Each structure stands twice: as C-alpha cells, then as structure tokens.
Amino acid sequence: MGFHTGGWWGFLSASAERPRVTWPLLRRVLKYARPYRWNIVAMLIIILFNTGLTLLTPLILRTLIDQTIPQKNLNQLIWLALALLLIPALGGVMAVLQRRLNVAVGEGVIYDLRVALYSRLQRMSLRFFTNTRVGELMSRLNNDVVGAQNAISNTIVGIATNLVQATAVTLVMLSLEWRLTLISVMILPLFVLVARRMGMRLREIARQAMDLNAQMNAMMNETLNIGGALLVKLFGRMHLEVERFQNRAQAVRDIGVRRAVVGMTFFVIVGLISAVGTALVYGVGGYLVIQGVFTVGTIVAFGAYLTSLYSALQGLANAPVEFATSVVSFERVFEVIDLPAEIQEKPDAITIHQARGELVFEDVTFRYDPKSVPLLREVERHGQIHNVTAVLSGESPRSKLNNARRLEVKEQETHEEEVEESESEFFTRSQARLDALDHISFRVEPGQLVALVGPSGAGKTTLTYLIPRLYDPTSGRILLDGYDLRDITLDSLSAQIGMVTQETHLFHDTIRTNLLYARLDAAQEELEAACKAANIHDFIQGLPDGYDTIVGERGYRLSGGEKQRLALARVILKDPRILVLDEATSHLDSESEALIQEALKRVMAGRTSIVIAHRLSTILAADQIVVMNRGRIVERGAHHELLAQGGLYATLYDTQFRREEMKI
Fold it and tell me: Taking the model in full, what pTM does it have?
C-alpha cells in the first residue's frame, strides 16, 4: 500500500507537545493568503477534479472484470483501455497545473514575509542588533519564513485534498459494499497504536539528528569563515579541528543510520498492518463473492479504493500537528514584524536639506539597558532543533542558556571600547558603570573641529553614536541647528552625517560597489576625485582590476590603512555637513598613517567634525578639546589651557602624546 513517509508524525499529537493555535493568530495567517485567493480557489477546483478522476479507475476495473471481459465486448474493451490511459494523462496535466499554482502561492508568501521582516529589521536600533544573535535573525528570515508558507501553500492544500479524497472514497466504498467498508475502517486503531509507540521513538531520533547536524554546521560556520580560519592557522589547530569535525560527522552518520533503520522498521510494521486490512477485505470479500453477494470486480475496486482511503486518513491525522507547527513559524515571524522600533520617526518630522552643522548636547544621559529595548524571545520550534550557542565546547542546552544570560550582564562593556588598564594611576579605577553617559552638555559651532579624548571606556564612542541616532538619549536632548534630532526625519538626518568607525566594514564586493554605497548615482569622475582626496586612488589604479577589484570578506584582502582610506573616500563621496570620526591610526604603519592624516585634513575642511582623537596632531588642530572620564565631561578647552590645569588631559598628554610631540 502507498503511505506518506511523514504520516507517522500525525499520530503523535496525543502524546507529544502540540503548538497552540489561537483564532486571532489564525485570522492573521489567513490574511497572507488573501492576495492569492484566486490561485487557492483554482487549486481547490483542480483538487475536486483530480479526486473525481481517481475514483473512476477502480470503477473501470470493476466494469472490465465483471462485464467487458466475460461478455467479450471488444469495442467496450478498447474504450475502457483508452480511458485507463487518458485518466492518468489528464491527471498529470492537472497535477502540473496545481503544482504551478501551489508554488506561486508559496513563493509569493515567502516573498511577502521576507520583505516585511527585512524592512522591520532595517528600522531596528543598533541596541537590538547588539542583543540579538545573527543566527537567530537568519533563522527567522529563512527557516521560519519557509515554515510559515507551508501553512498556506502545503498544509491547507493537503488538508483539502485529503478531506475531499477521504470523503469521496468512503462514500463510493459505502455505495459499493458497506460491510467491506466497515472492515476497512476498523483497522485504523491498529495504525494509531503502532504509530504512537514507534513515532515517539522516531521523533526523538529525528530531534537528535537535527541537533547533531546543527552542531556540525555551526562548527563549519565558525571555523571556515575568514576569522575562524585565520585563528585556526595562527594557533596551528588544523589537526584538532579535523578531529573535532570527524567526531561530529561520525555522530551525524551514526544517527542517520539509526534513523533509517528505525524508520524502515516502522514502515514495515505499518505495511504489515495494512496487509492485515487488505487480507481481511479480500478474505471476507472473496467469501461473499463465492456466496454470490457481489462480483469479483467489486472486490478489486475495493482494493484500489483501500489504498486511497488509508493514505487520505493518514494525511488528515498528520495535518493538525503540521499546521500547528507551520503556524508557530508564522508566530515567530509576526514577533519580529510587531517589534516596536526603538528609534522612531515622528509623523510630522521635519526634513533638513542643508544643515549649517551646529550641534548642542543638553544634559544628555544614556544607559545601555537591555530590558528597555524590545528583543526576540526564545520560542520553542516544535519538531525542530534547539538553538546552538556553544560551537566547540559541546555544552548542554541548559548551560548554553545560562551562559547567554550571564553574557547579557556585560552589555555595558560590549558597547564601549575595551576597558584597559593604563600606565597611569589615574586610570586604575574601572570604567564599568551604570550610565554610559552622565549629564553631558556642550556646544559645537558650525565648521568647528571637536576632539574627544579620554581613557578607553570613558563614553566617547557612545557619544558619537547618539549623533546619527543609532541610539536615543535616556534623558536630555541633542540639537542640530536648533532642532531636536528626534524631530528630524531619519533619512534627512542620515544625509547630513558621515561617520567613519574604528572598525571599517566593507562588503564582499568590488571597490566601486563599496564606494557607491555612499551615493548610488555617483559618476566615475566623482569616485576618482573622492579617492584622490582620500589618498587611495593611485593604489586602486595599480590593482589589476582597478575599481572592479573584489575586496574580499569584510575587506580582508586590503590592509588596515587601505580600508580606512576607502572608508574616508566613501564619506567624501557622501559629502556630509557633519563628520564623525574614530581616528584610529595607532595600529597603522607610518606611511599609511601619514596618508590618512593628510586625507583627514581635506575631509574635515569646512565641516563640523567630531573626532575621537588618537593623534596629537588632530588634538592640536581642534577648536575644542572635550575630555571624558566615566561618562562625564571632566575638562574642556584648548590644548595649552588643559595642560595648565594639570588634570586628566595633562596625564593623558604625559602618558600618550608627549613622545609623539618629541618626534615632531
């Protein structure tokens, strides 16, 4: 007999956990089917048509056996034989058309969900991404989206198909012979009993298999990306990683063999049970034929209908769990779509076309509080794998969860520069604190250069992140040309601000594409002018493919200085009114540093610039030096004024900048 390979899942609904489906959730799911309602209606019509076709074949066989062959009706034999050929051919055409409609619905739902998810994620704040695993977001965009579309394109269609088929077959069987129909249905409790016992075992093996596959895939992802591969080579752990991978691949192999053997055993037992039903039907039916109650053709038709009936009933038993699992995927997708954006744009926000560049911080306080931002919750994927947190250590799911919670406690430090000990006793006090910024107030006039200095973890990077609204202040406000940043449209604010972070990010694409990210319509001449200003044009021209050179994963094919100069060229191409720079040149060679310093002078000319200063030359050129410590502004003024005060700046100068001045 023919049975669905996944049918055993359905019999677990009484013993295994079942996801909860609510009417509001179901109503919202069905909204995603609304744009494709005519496709679904067409599929239902085809289902009815195909079901009618499948009912004809057993009846034709009965006619052949009972009438055509005994009566030696050659003309009827030819027509019935042609009908037996025409029915599967027509059914095949209808099946292809149904598949076409089904795929159109499924892929359309996937498209709608992915675009909605991606659009929402693009509007989430930086804090959301620092508190959310990338793998979890990828799971929502891939696994859960595909799982969600199954509810509409596969599960609903499957339920309709099996329901129509089971109803129609049962009615036809009852019309042919009610006693054989009762015998056919009476065998179903045996299916349920065996499937529940074997199914629980299979489900556990399936979960183990998916978990082991996830661990193997996670290890491959961690050790085969550019950072992981570099770490493995630097520590000479190639043989260790191969051994680890062998162990994980072996576990996947062994569980695969076990799963296949148990699964085949299950289906052998199911086949034997179906054989019992078939034997009873033919045994009782044969006796009734001998007694002259009905014909041989009737019992042959019954055998054909029996296969369709068992298949349809098994599919219907499987449908509730399948549908509920798909709806849970919808729930996970909706959770992201419904997340409120922390950085919101007011309905009446103003658009700034050309800012003057005046920045004012008014009593700004900011705190990294994970609880204040809407985050994704852990949702159990029924029948799917647990999240894999530990890749190499093989921790248990509970310890993984505990470790993840402990890591959240370090939220403050992950948003700041690494907290380091300094040579000076002034920095022996830890920078760890509750408020990242504490009542910050200062003004930057249009065109001014402000240098931010202070020990690592003092709050400099956090302060710069507030300017383009990567975060919003916990209290206080920041004004641009007299307007609160929260009153300005996000797009126009972004257009006024150019930012170069200490860690330059480049896409795995060409130099041209990475530069055009600043301005999509820039001409080649403009690209070259920006690169010349950033002292990178000659280097690009010397490459074999010039501006069409692929920079590699995260720009790994370029040096630190080259990446920074490309980042500067990208900002120059954007031509912002306000420039925010993390002037990280301390780890570059002298030639790269000189080129970047020269480029910085051109970039900052005529613009309001906020620079986290690492070099004395930038500090000396600043109109205003803001000295920060533990989230507060402790000193402010010109270089000579701050030296005279003998405070934190003087200490920084003695420990970090004096040797540079001596070189000058």
Answer: 0.71
